[in-house]
Specification:
mainly alpha, 87% helix
């Protein structure tokens, strides 16, 4: 009986490790560790463009340099870039929330399944007790 429990526990542990690896891969696909470097690069590009626009605008006003761009161009482009960044962040957050919902839904399904199994086991135990008492 002890050997059966050991084999069963080893199988459950192996199944848990496989599920953990699946989840790790899924998290990487939706914006986990695999996209950190990509996020840093995108953030740096946005920051560099905004800083350049800011510097050009300050040079235009302080040194009276005539640039071929309209006076409010840097403000308009800055607002556009910030808007794009906010939309991108909302999109990433939506993906994470969807994944969290999927995980919670899977956990709920597993709990319901385990509850059903526990009820079946309790019924079997009750039935065997009744048979022994008769």
């Amino acid at each position: 009986m002890s050997e059966e429990k050991d084999v069963s526990l080893e199988q459950e542990l192996e199944q848990f490790k496989n599920e953990k690896e699946k989840i790790r891969n899924l998290v990487g696909q939706i914006g986990g560790k695999g996209s950190v470097q990509q996020d840093i690069i995108i953030n740096l590009v946005f920051l560099a463009i905004l800083l350049l626009l800011f510097i050009f605008d300050i040079l235009r006003h302080s040194l009276h340099i005539n640039l071929p761009l309209p006076a409010l161009f840097s403000v308009e482009v800055g607002i556009l870039l910030v808007s794009i960044k906010i939309i991108w962040m909302i999109y990433k957050q939506t993906k994470v929330e969807h994944f969290q919902f999927w995980i919670l839904n899977s956990i709920e399904f597993r709990l319901n399944n385990l509850s059903s199994q526990m009820n079946d086991i309790e019924q079997k135990i009750d039935n065997t007790k009744e048979v022994k008492n008769e």
